Amino acid sequence: MKIENIKISKNIILYFFMFNLFLMNLVNCTESENVFINEVNFTSEKFISVDYIFNNEGLNKPIAIQVNPFTKEVVVLDRGNVCIYVFSDKGKYKRKFGQPGQGPGDILTPHYMNIDKEGNIYIFEWGNRRLSIFSSEGKYINSFRIPNVDPETRFCISKDKEIVMNLPKRGYYFTVFSWEGEIIKDFGKITKYIKNKPNKLYRNIEFAYGHPIVDNLGNYYIFLKYLPMVKVFDQSGKLLKEQFLSKILDPKTNRKPPEKYGDDLTEIMSYQEVIFRNNKFYLSSLSHEDTKTKKYRIIVYVLNKNLNIVEKKIILPLKKIIEFNTNLLLKLEILNSREEILLPDINNSEILKFFSTY
Fold first, then answer.
1. Pairing relation of β-strands 155-157 and 140-145?
2. How far is residue 272 CA from its own chain's centroid?
3. Strands of 110-115's sheet, edge to edge?
4. Which neighbouring-strand residues pair with 133?
């Protein structure tokens, strides 16, 4: 009798252990696979119309937009007029600065923009191979040439006002500059996914292009453009985490190891822009709504700081085609906790505002 009771007890313990193991695997699978994604459709209205004439001029191919965290003004980088326009939070013109040229305060072929917490505006000029810094009022502060720069170069500003750039030709995911343009450090040595193939080694650099972000705790994120995956480093350069985002982008391409990709990187679906707002990551990607009619839409994926939970994806329908250029990524802006979105429409020279109707 005692022996039978002992056997029953052992079986109960074994079943209990196996059941808990099953639950743990189920939870881990749900979190890592990102099975459920809440899809939210937004509608749009014009925030700044192409017909809005100010100071005897108007928008001409805007490529980037950002709310100045210091002044709460809306800053627009205009590629066609080669300048920076500043508007109120209601879209009313206030001022402009910058002009075409190569001198101090001039701008040539602007590609990207960012703003620090004190309101200073940073412009990456591909034409001058440099970064120019202006105050929130438009006063020229400084500019410096960028070594190993590329049209795909992206950068962010840390809370200490250090300029963190992605320059993989230097062999690292991050290169940190001071305000004066001095290189403080390189860190995050790029991973060489393809080895022993001399004619393919350049692909390791292409796999290292991405969007750098520094969070409030000082951790460094690089959202790689062509894998796509994200790597997280601490301030000392130690790799904390790396994770594929295969469940929120095209699984057919993202599940393949890097060396299995085709020679044409444009075949790989990648995100256009990554920004950090509301303590969340917003990844925007252009995709086909209908392959037959060739209509496009922009999908904005919303991730929390843990990166392993997709909160939702926001669908931005486009009434007209917005130019798709991998080197000219449209920098959108998240306005508030309701996640209203401002998007530059480069083809139609206007700014669109997207919002949920729910």
1. unpaired
2. 7
3. 110-115, 121-125, 130-134, 140-145
4. 122, 142
DSSP summary character for residue 331: B
Kindly state the tokens that stand for 135.
């105050």
Classify residue 174 as exposed, middle or buried by CB count within 10 Å of its CB (0-12, 13-18, 19+): buried
Q: Report the distance separating Cα 90 and Cα 46, nearest Å.
A: 11
CA distances from 341 to 2, 43, 300, 316 (A): 70, 10, 10, 9
For residue 87, the cross-strand partners are 74, 93
- Whole-angstrom Cα distance, residue 215 to residue 213? 6
* Nearest one of 86, 85, 123, 87 to 104, comparing CA atoms: 123
Instruction: Count CB-CB contacts under 10 A for residue 130.
Output: 18
Between β-strands 155-157 and 163-165, what pairing exists: parallel, antiparallel or unpaired? antiparallel
Return the amino acid letter for 54: F
Per residue of the chain (358 residues), what is the pLDDT tens digit?
A: 444 444 445 454 445 444 444 344 433 333 344 445 778 889 999 999 999 999 899 999 999 999 999 999 999 999 999 999 999 999 999 999 999 999 999 999 999 999 999 999 999 999 999 999 999 999 999 999 999 999 889 999 998 899 999 999 999 999 999 999 999 999 999 988 877 666 666 778 888 999 999 998 999 999 998 887 899 999 889 999 998 887 666 655 555 556 555 454 444 556 788 999 988 999 988 775 555 555 677 889 899 888 866 678 888 887 665 555 544 457 899 998 889 999 998 888 999 999 988 7
Please confirm whether the linkage preceding 251 is cis (ω < 30° from 0). Answer: no
Sign of CA dihedral 282, 283, 284, 287: negative
pTM over 0.90: no
* CB-based contact 83:97 (threshold 8 Å): yes
> Which amino acid does the sequence have at 163?
I
121, two tokens:
């505006």
